[in-house]
């Protein structure tokens, strides 16, 4: 029999009540108020106006200076809570998924349980491995170019053309998001879902309720209608869509394809935000725009599925403004650290912007630096984790940048964009929050 690891007598550093309240006020509440499952545009606008995301990073920098490398326990009645403050600990927690650090935390399960209770992310082993493997196969994780890329890029091209024709001289979020959702529905479910706005609306209602977790009763009837509709599309298995691919893949009784697909539809939404923010970066950074255009033009229309520089810009938008800023885990057993024991059932927060924007360590913290993502090891061990990491890493980490960069190529390849609102410049630090809902571009023909 293996020996139990000796429990350390030492106690992990514990924040004072005042510091704990400050983490709540400046990190947790702003993150939750913006909406974890569906964004609340008004709160995103407030966050941009008063610099809430930058303040959250500064608060964690202060905690690091005061308490050291952590993990730091926060004394909260009724819930053991810890915050990760050092890069090595981020790597350890993410590598230790799903045991001893499960992604299926109580909070996440209550939130996602509203509309996708069987999604891999909140499934416990062994069901988790079955569902995770399935998602990896559907999305072809680890492959920069999906085997159905030609079909998907055709969809992007068609919808981008409609978008640009209808946008006239102004491109804003409302116009962009309509086109992006058409792309999502066609790529995930098939062309017959193109105009099924009702499906997206049903999901939006379920996501709005799920933002409240266990504080809001479930809308079971709506969730059933939503999954019935998804299953109809899945049974059609249209060629050239992920639904077509799913039909051909092995499944078990536990796979629950419609729950995984609900997550695809939901998670594509932040992909649109990142795409739109990347357009804002490229519209305001002439050197990077020129490099992106050079790559797009050289690739021509047929090979736009692999655009490493444009993808790097997309990844930079996610580093600067991560759409999943808070990565949560929960300990499934007592865990030993140098500083002491972290008890079982401790809820752990990794706040990605603290690492992505740590200007005490990264000289590029607040500026656009796409070359970072063209290196063999982006960050050289520093946690740049817009897609998380370890065995719980996003299985769409290649697929989403491929789709986003294809959309960017269609727009930037043919049009000149100038950002009207807000002001961004290579000469100034980029803001901690970029409200995608209020971005507005003036559109003109591309200068020769
Ligand atoms: C900008 C877009 C996206 C970002 C930044 C992103 C980021 C993430 C992150 C950080 C996680 C881990 C969450 C956690 O540990 O709690 C995750 C998980 C996941 N993502 Fe994404 N994601 C994106 C888009 C997508 C899309 C479009 C899909 C599907 C088409 C997808 C499928 C998944 C799945 C299935 C998981 C669960 C993985 C597991 O169970 O281990 N994501 N994503």
Question: What would you say this structure looks like, in words?
Answer:
- The protein is α+β, with helices and mostly antiparallel strands and 448 residues long.
- The protein has a single domain, classed as Cytochrome P450 (Cytochrome p450, Orthogonal Bundle).
- It contains 16 helices and 10 strands.
- It has helices at residues 17-33, 41-50, 52-67, 87-95, 106-112, 127-139, 149-167, 173-189, 197-210, 220-236, 242-248, 257-284, 286-299, 308-320, 352-356, 399-414; strands at 72-74, 81-83, 101-102, 170-172, 326-331, 335-337, 340-342, 347-351, 415-421, 440-445.
- The strands form 3 sheets. It has a 5-stranded mixed sheet, with helices on both faces. A 3-stranded antiparallel sheet has the order 4-10-9.
- A hairpin with a 2-residue loop joins strand 6 and strand 7.
- Helix 10 crosses helix 11.
- Residues 1-5 have low confidence and may be disordered.
The proportion of residues in beta strands is 5-15%
Number of domains: 1
List the total number of helices.
16
How far apart lie the N and C ends? 73 Å
CATH superfamily, by name, is: Cytochrome P450
How is the biggest beta sheet arranged? Answer: 5 strands, mixed
Task: Using the coordinates above, name the CATH class.
Answer: Mainly Alpha
The chain-level mean pLDDT equals 93
Give the uncertain stretches in residue-range form.
Answer: 1-5
- CATH topology: the name is Cytochrome p450
- Cα radius of gyration in angstroms: 22 Å
Can you summarize this structure?
The protein is of the alpha+beta class. The strands form 3 sheets. It has a 5-stranded mixed sheet, sandwiched between helices.
């Amino acid at each position: 029999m293996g020996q139990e690891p000796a429990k350390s007598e030492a106690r992990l550093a514990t924040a004072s009540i005042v510091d704990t309240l400050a983490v709540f006020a400046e990190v947790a509440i702003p993150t939750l108020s913006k909406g974890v499952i569906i964004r609340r545009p008004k709160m995103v606008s407030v966050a941009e106006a008063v610099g809430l995301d930058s303040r959250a990073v500064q608060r964690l920098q202060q905690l690091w200076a005061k308490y050291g490398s952590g993990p730091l326990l926060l004394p909260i009645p009724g819930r053991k809570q810890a915050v990760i403050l050092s890069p090595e600990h981020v790597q350890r927690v993410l590598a230790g998924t799903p045991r001893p650090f499960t992604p299926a935390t109580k909070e996440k399960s209550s939130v996602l349980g509203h509309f996708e209770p069987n999604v891999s992310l909140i499934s416990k082993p062994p069901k988790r491995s079955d569902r995770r493997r399935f998602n990896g196969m559907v999305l072809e994780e680890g492959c920069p170019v999906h085997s159905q890329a030609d079909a998907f890029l055709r969809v992007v091209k068609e919808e981008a053309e409609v978008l640009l024709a209808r946008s006239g001289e102004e491109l804003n979020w409302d116009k962009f998001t309509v086109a992006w959702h058409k792309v999502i529905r066609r790529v995930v479910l098939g062309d017959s879902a193109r105009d099924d706005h009702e499906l997206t609306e049903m999901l939006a209602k379920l996501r709005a309720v799920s933002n409240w977790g266990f504080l809001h009763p479930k809308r079971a009837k709506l969730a059933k209608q939503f999954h019935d509709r998804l299953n109809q599309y899945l049974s059609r298995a249209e060629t050239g869509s992920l639904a077509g691919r799913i039909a051909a893949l092995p499944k078990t009784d536990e796979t629950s394809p419609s729950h995984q697909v609900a997550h695809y539809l939901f998670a594509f939404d932040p992909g649109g935000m990142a795409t739109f923010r990347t357009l804002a970066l490229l519209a305001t950074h002439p050197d990077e725009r020129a490099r992106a255009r050079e790559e797009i033009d050289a690739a021509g229309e047929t090979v736009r599925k692999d655009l490493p520089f444009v993808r790097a810009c997309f990844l930079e938008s996610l580093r600067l403004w991560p759409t999943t800023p808070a990565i949560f885990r929960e300990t499934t057993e007592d865990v030993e650290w140098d500083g002491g024991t972290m008890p079982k059932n401790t809820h752990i927060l990794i706040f990605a912007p603290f690492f992505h924007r740590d200007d005490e360590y990264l000289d590029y913290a607040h500026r656009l630096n796409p070359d970072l993502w063209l290196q063999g090891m982006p960050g050289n061990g520093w946690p740049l984790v817009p897609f998380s990491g370890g065995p719980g890493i996003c299985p769409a980490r290649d697929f989403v940048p491929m789709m986003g960069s294809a959309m960017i190529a269609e727009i930037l390849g043919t049009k000149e964009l100038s950002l009207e609102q807000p002001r961004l410049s290579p000469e100034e630090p980029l803001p901690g929050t970029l409200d995608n809902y209020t971005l507005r571009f003036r559109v003109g023909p591309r200068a020769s």
